Automatic annotation (TrEMBL), chain B:
Sequence ranges assigned to domain ABC transporter in this UniProt record: 11-247, 262-505
GO molecular function: ATP binding
Organism of origin: Nocardioides aquaticus
Keywords: ATP-binding, Nucleotide-binding, Repeat, Transport
Protein name: Galactose/methyl galactoside import ATP-binding protein MglA
Gene designation per UniProt: mglA_2
Automatic annotation (TrEMBL), chains C, D:
Location of the protein in the cell: Cell membrane
Keyword check for Membrane: yes
Membrane topology according to the record: Multi-pass membrane protein
Positions of the UniProt region annotated as Disordered: 1-39
Superkingdom of origin organism: Bacteria
Membrane-spanning segments: 48-67, 79-101, 134-155, 161-181, 202-223, 254-272, 308-327
UniProt keyword list: Cell membrane, Membrane, Transmembrane, Transmembrane helix
Protein name per the record: Ribose import permease protein RbsC
Pfam families per the UniProt record, alphabetical: BPD_transp_2
Length: 320, 507, 360, 360
């Protein structure tokens, strides 16, 4: 198994060197989509906590929104304000590219988090989760569990279908399943909420009378999904989660449900973004690297958490 | 049957003042009503009659003045309190809930119920009894009120008033929607009530009704009492009119034109017009410059005839031709294009944009005339509207106030003004003078006649036989959806029309 | 309340009144010419007959479900799934039918449900529930709902704020408050009695389905058979007439919003038991589903006309639609596209029938 | 249309008509006692005076902005940011004011905007635009908007489907179609002329802000000074009376939805230029913002009364609120909570003023 060393990215990792010493105050603008599910809420929360940990960071958090028009205007406001850096988790990466470019042209470094811009010049640093990789991880795990049984029924409970990230995850999942001759037999989208998960799962159970494995994209909606399974008394299959909430990990640890694994999609990206921004503005470098500059791109790893390695991850998992 | 004058009057209002933004609707009104009498309230449109009775029924709170019931001063804070005092009101604008049934409307607010559950059987039974006693047993208690004719709705209001323990019954222009037969029935009910000691406040613009039913008269002018306690039977009409309007008006119809109109070309020709289930086989020819009157009982289908003719309802058979061109069935725009105009029967639901300014209501169907490239010349609109409202004596005079704030009669004048302004080949008037006071009536008659003289073909529907006979050149009598008689207006008299109208009708 | 006053009919009427034939040939059903504003045909009171078109739409939907997915659709389990899904929206829709019929609207239902679910699953409430009885949680949920409804109602009736704006403000505030209280965490329920009760089944029927049926039945009775229901129609149809008839229109309006708030609390209990969580995201956008179900059922958005049966069918149509789509494994986009077409088709169908049942 | 027949005004009037003084002292604003149904006070026509309360709310908001964030709020750049943000919602809100005043509602605006943005940024359209002229894209966007509006309008006016349902169906279908066409991918615009034109500034003012101003100005003139605006008021206020007055109510209703559709197309162009993308997620939930702005501006949701000035102020209030929040660094939850409170406060303020300006 790979070493998941970089994924944690929490404050504990950046202990050494002089990076933590206070420098000039850095004003950082932060904008993210609406915190309408646990993972996104935790992104914003972790950003705030990271900022609070440094007395030289002045964080300005804009209202979370799923309206690109509003998010653009938030970035414009940051530009007008002359902040030192902008950490941006765009609702739609492509749609936010022009305004990010505008910020870069105005001399404000943009740290792009999670959903990638269209133009590499629109961000100084990109902190990426790996949505495609997440699907691949989930798919590979299911392949390894089901072995060579091409007749096995695999179901997928996706997130919000119209988001590019959902498509990337599904694509990765499909591709990985294809490697072992499986495919997705039933697929229902939910909406990243427990309620939506419950609704989708209830219908899914009716659509598929017999299932072998389920991948649920999001542990927050997973709470509802598990409730639906329990309500229906169905447990002939195992489920793989997504995102890696603390709840899910505790459940895996206790082995008290069909949830046997989850694919981590770090919610600490927001915090990573803030740290990058601070280092950039204060012209420091990542302590552990030889590089004197903050790197252009950091792609986070999407490891699979099972009962075997849950200990390692549970502390950095987000509470949803 | 004059009431006994001894003791405190049942109701004593004094110095009542009520102000609306920009208008002092009541400016110190005094009124006393005794048990068992019919007290008539007279006054021009906008004099404040309806406002006064709304104060009495606690729909409005007065700004000043006192109200005493049985000699004891009382504050009427909500309509429910007024009802507790035995005050029941039939408002000028019928205030019923269209989608509720007859029985539900009658018992609205004081439902027959046990533990919150409606006792529908009991309500229906009681409703049937009430309606039977009002002479309208044919109205079903379960029917939605919105489907009733205005006259039938009036009966429902009446039944509602009687379902309370009434000591004072207020009737605001009840006869406006009734025909002779209906009025006679109403008077029979009123007499029965007064015989039991119920006091009645009666408002009407028809002086002959006052004479027939009234005991005493109070006259309002510009929100103040100008005379009170007049004897309804003996006070000369000229005096009453003088008191109301401040001038003397001779109440006459304009002279008919001497040349016989049938010589000119027919403008409107209706052949075999029918509306399934309501009327059939209606033929009608109107020549340029001619006024044709449709007489008949309420519910005879006269409104339906002209609404169908106008395309507002889809005819099931027959043709309508204007100036030789056939109109498309069931299309108002087609009729309008051909130069037909309809002044509808119900001003509130069919005629007015209540929240819009007076001038906009007047010009709404002739907007194109004031527009260049779609841009409106509001000053010209206001000017024209002002001319019309002045000649119709609309009060208050401003054309910028919302129509909602006008009195009932003045609202009617606005509806009419719109159609007088309109360049029409054919003008259809449905109850044009409903609720209009004596002063404005002769002005309206003169205007209609002048329009006819300029070559317009006019059709007038009215429940007042006198009006039909006086205004029209030719009269058609409609009964149960069929034209039963047609003749020149001067070849027939009122009693003959009434006979024709009643023949075979119930009661 | 003077409801029970004994009335002597026609007091003081002349005994000579001419009796007319008691059976009336002209009595037609409700209907008649109404303003041309778009509408769903003359859906008056309640009853399956008036909603024939809608019932037919639902039946067609079921037939499509049966044909395309075989007994998977028709199985008891699936039907119960549909009903369970319908329950949450359904309960709120019943309350919304009253509010809309009474001339109002409430956009805050989803947010109030979320706040209610959060409040009744806080650590404090759960601890108290475990220490005493799980009924504490029920009380908390209903009380929060009622309080929100009360505020909305007071704003609308005494503050004279248009319902759309007042309840939109309530939506924003309630969700904000829910987020603050829960700190945007999903709160897991761990009160055994609670979960056992609401998760139970009675002769195979889940408790929440029974709750939905109960609410619908009570709603129907209140709407059609009580003074409260009649007054709601009057207040929505002609508030001025209602006022003049002595009805306290403002108090009635407040009551309308309060009952909807309470039902949002009930819905919160249902969603808590279904998902075993309380969170500020519960009920996001449910207001649109609810209003759509009510309106498609035949309740007039302008007030004054409503039907509980129609609302229930409306809710079932929407849930069944989603279920059939899922069983058929369609993509979300196709679902959306088709959904629009099907909704319009259902309404047009309903209109045909309404028109036919009206003609003589 | 016979409206244009040349007629001498006042034809057939008595020559003796007494001219009344042209200025009338009793002229008050419209208003007076109304049914108790919640409302925003007697907001009649247009003009700043009638909207004094709203203007005041906006001013207070600006003062709060200035006090809490200093010149950061008052800078030209920030004001332009507010206006740019307001432009998209604003353009649609102007069109919505007409539809709501005319007695309808349109929930599909966001979806139509999305479909329009997707259609006009497909590979095919972009290729054609590059080969010929970028105006092709403009044509595509407007045509798609108009077509959607036409369908909604026909459903409402001739199909007699209630506007809420008809446009909800359009919402679902348009978004579904947009997703299918774009295959849920965000489509990047690469037509230099297009981006240059819409991204440009004229004497420091961005083109899309100018477009918004233009649409608002034209909207005001049409609403208040043309027969179209007048008819809209009539159709919404009393459709039956409008019909009997000879207005082709059905055709007018269709036109209302078509103009809104076209403005959704305009909004699509604006959002494309702002984001340089077309996607099926554009304008999600914008319908609520739009309707809220229109209603808070004083347009009656029931139809028959509307104001363009009020709508513009309504849009500005909402966008300024967001801006001030962003500058003040509040948490999203607090923002939501406060937003509700502020909206209600603004409405109550407006009511005070409306009431005062009505009294003599
Ligand atoms: N709600 C209102 N707002 C403003 N002014 C009003 C309102 N209601 C009535 N008025 C005004 O008060 C005056 C009296 O009106 P009222 O309705 O009492 O007259 P009326 O005597 O009943 O006339 P009519 O015979 O035409 O019914 C009129 O000038 C009218 O314009
Ligand atoms: N919308 C409707 N639905 C059902 N029946 C109706 C409707 N409108 C009118 N009617 C019935 O049609 C008949 C004719 O009504 P209407 O009042 O129009 O006759 P009318 O001769 O014009 O009387 P009026 O003197 O009131 O003008 C009545 O029996 C009435 O109840
Ligand atoms: Mg009056
Ligand atoms: Mg009639």
């Amino acid at each position: 198994a790979d070493d998941g060393g970089t994924q944690a990215g929490g404050t504990s990792e950046a202990e050494q060197g002089s990076n933590d010493e206070a420098g000039d105050t850095v004003v950082i603008g932060f904008s993210a989509p609406a915190a309408d599910h646990g993972w996104m809420a935790s992104i914003t929360e972790s950003a705030r906590e990271a900022a609070d940990a440094y007395e030289d960071v002045d964080l300005r958090i804009a209202e979370g929104t799923n309206d690109v028009n509003l998010q653009i205007s938030q970035v414009e406001t940051f530009i007008n304000d002359g902040v030192d850096a902008i950490v941006l988790l765009p609702f739609d990466g492509a749609a936010m590219t022009p305004v990010a470019l505008q910020a870069m042209e105005a001399g404000i470094p943009v740290i792009n988090v999670d959903r990638e811009f269209e133009d590499p010049n629109a961000a100084r640093v990109t902190v990426l989760g790996d949505n495609y990789g997440m699907g691949v991880s989930a798919g590979s795990y299911i392949c390894s569990e089901l072995g060579d049984n091409p007749d096995a029924v695999v179901a997928e409970i996706a997130g919000i279908d119209s988001l590019p990230l959902t498509q990337d995850r599904s694509q990765g999942f499909e591709d990985a399943l294809g490697e072992c001759g499986l495919d997705v037999d039933n697929r229902v989208p939910a909406d990243f909420t427990p309620e939506g998960g419950e609704r989708a799962a209830s219908n899914l159970l009716q659509a598929a009378p017999q299932i072998d494995a389920v991948w649920n994209h999001d542990d927050d909606q997973g709470v509802g999904v598990l409730a639906a399974f329990e309500n229906a008394g169905r447990d002939e299959f195992f489920m793989v989660g997504g995102a890696g909430s603390a709840n899910a990990m505790r459940s895996i640890q206790a082995d008290d449900s069909v949830l046997k694994a989850t694919v981590v999609y770090p919610s600490t990206q927001g915090a990573d973004g803030i740290m990058m921004a601070r280092l950039l503005v204060q012209q420091k470098a990542l302590g552990d690297l030889v590089e004197v500059e903050v790197p252009r791109e950091v792609q986070l790893y999407a490891p699979v958490v099972t009962a075997d390695n849950v200990e390692q991850f549970i502390d950095t998992a987000f509470e949803s | 049957m004059a009431a006994t004058p001894e003791g405190a009057p049942l109701l004593q209002m004094s110095g009542i003042v009520k102000e609306f933004p920009g208008v002092r609707a009541l400016d110190g009104v005094d009124l006393d009503v005794r048990a068992g009498e019919v007290h008539c309230l007279l006054g021009q449109n906008g004099a404040g009659k309806s406002t006064l009775i709304k104060v009495l029924s606690a729909s409005y709170r007065p700004d000043a003045g006192t109200i005493a019931i049985d000699g004891a001063e009382t504050t009427l804070s909500t309509p429910a309190v007024a009802m507790k005092h035995g005050i029941s009101t039939i408002y000028q604008e019928l205030d019923l809930v269209a989608d509720l049934s007859v029985a539900e409307n009658i018992f609205l607010g004081h439902e027959l119920s046990r533990g919150g559950f409606s006792q529908r059987q009991r309500a229906h039974r009681t409703t049937r009894e009430l309606l039977t006693r009002l002479g309208h047993a044919h109205v079903s208690p379960t029917r939605a009120v919105g489907t009733l004719s205005p006259a039938e709705q009036q009966i429902v209001s009446m039944a509602r008033a009687l379902s309370h323990d009434t000591r004072l019954l207020i009737l605001d222009e009840p006869s406006a929607v009734l025909d002779q037969d209906g009025v006679a029935n109403l008077f029979r009910v009123i007499r029965g009530l007064t015989a039991e000691g119920v006091a009645v406040v009666y408002i009407s613009h028809r002086l002959e009704e006052i004479r027939e039913i009234g005991d005493r008269i109070t006259v309002l002018k510009d929100g103040a009492t100008v005379a009170t306690g007049l004897d309804a039977a003996t006070t000369p009409t000229a005096d009453l009119i003088k008191l109301m309007t401040g001038r003397s008006i001779e109440y006459v119809f304009p002279p008919r034109s001497s040349t016989p109109r049938s010589r000119t070309d027919p403008v409107l020709e209706v052949r075999g017009l029918a509306l399934a289930g309501v009327f059939s086989g209606v033929d009608l020819t109107v020549h340029a410059g001619e006024i044709v009157g449709l007489a008949g009982l309420v519910g005879a289908g006269r409104s339906e005839i002209i609404e169908t003719l106008y395309g507002a309802r889809r005819a099931s058979a027959g043709t309508v031709t204007v100036d030789g061109r056939k109109l498309r069935r069931g299309s108002v725009p087609a009729a309008v294009k051909a130069g037909v105009g309809l002044c509808p029967e119900e001003r509130k639901s069919q005629g007015l944009l209540l929240d819009q300014a007076v001038y906009r209501n007047i010009t709404v169907s002739v907007m194109g005339r004031f527009a260049r490239l779609g841009l409106l010349d509001e000053r010209a609109e206001r000017r024209t509207a002002t001319e019309l409202t002045t000649s119709l004596d609309v009060r208050p005079a401003g054309v910028d106030r919302a129509v909602r704030t006008l009195s009932g009669g003045n609202q009617q004048k606005i509806v009419l003004a719109r159609w007088l302004l309109r360049e029409c080949r054919v003008l259809l008037l449905d109850e044009p003078t409903r609720g209009v006071d004596v002063g404005a009536r002769s002005e309206i008659y003169a205007l209609v006649r002048r329009l006819a003289d300029s070559g317009v073909a006019v059709v007038v529907v009215s429940s007042e036989v006198e009006e039909v006979l006086g205004l029209a050149d030719r009269v058609l009598v409609v009964r149960e959806g069929a034209v039963v008689h047609e003749s020149a207006a001067d070849e027939i008299d009122e009693s003959r029309v009434l006979d024709l109208v009643m023949e075979g009708a119930p009661a | 309340m003077s409801d029970d006053t004994e009335v002597s009919p026609g007091r003081g009427l002349p005994a000579t009144a001419v009796p007319v034939s008691p059976t009336d040939p002209t009595t037609g059903g409700p209907g008649g010419e109404r303003p041309a504003r778009g509408r769903l045909g003359g859906l008056g009171g309640s009853g399956l007959v008036r909603n024939l078109g809608l019932v037919l739409a639902l039946v067609i939907l079921c037939v499509v479900g049966l044909v395309t997915t075989g007994e998977r659709f028709g199985s008891t389990a699936n039907l119960l799934t549909i009903l369970r899904l319908a329950a949450v929206t359904g309960v709120i829709s019943i309350g919304m039918t009253f509010v809309i019929t009474g001339g109002g609207i409430d956009l805050s239902v989803g947010a109030v449900m979320a706040l209610s679910s959060v409040w009744c699953t806080t650590l404090a409430t759960q601890t108290m529930a475990r220490d005493t009885h799980w009924i504490v949680m029920v009380g908390a949920a209903l009380a929060v709902g009622a309080a929100c409804g009360l505020i909305s109602g007071l704003l609308v009736s005494y503050g004279k704020v248009v319902p759309f704006i007042a309840t939109l403000a309530m939506l924003a505030s309630a969700r904000g408050l829910a987020e603050i209280i829960s700190q945007r965490r999903t709160q897991i329920v761990d009160v055994p009695g609670f979960t056992d009760f609401f998760g139970a089944e009675v002769v195979g029927v889940p408790v929440i389905v029974i709750m939905f049926a109960l609410v619908a039945a009570i709603g129907w009775v209140v709407f059609n058979r009580t003074t409260f229901g009649r007054r709601t129609l009057a207040v929505g149809g002609n508030p001025e007439a209602a006022r003049l008839a002595g009805i306290n229109v403002q108090r009635h309006t407040v009551l309308l919003y309060v009952q909807l708030g309470v039902l949002c609390g009930v819905a919160a209990l249902m969603i808590i038991s279904r998902t075993s969580t309380g969170t500020s995201t519960h009920g996001t956008l449910i207001e649109l589903d609810v209003i759509a179900a009510v309106v498609i059922g035949g309740t007039l958005l302008a007030g004054g006309r409503g039907t509980i049966v129609g609302t229930v069918i409306g809710v079932l149509i929407f849930t069944t639609l989603t279920n059939v789509f899922t069983l058929n494994n369609r993509s979300t986009s196709e679902q959306a596209l088709l959904k629009g077409v099907i909704i319009v088709a259902a309404v047009l169908l309903q209109q045909r029938f309404a028109a036919r049942s009206k003609s003589p």
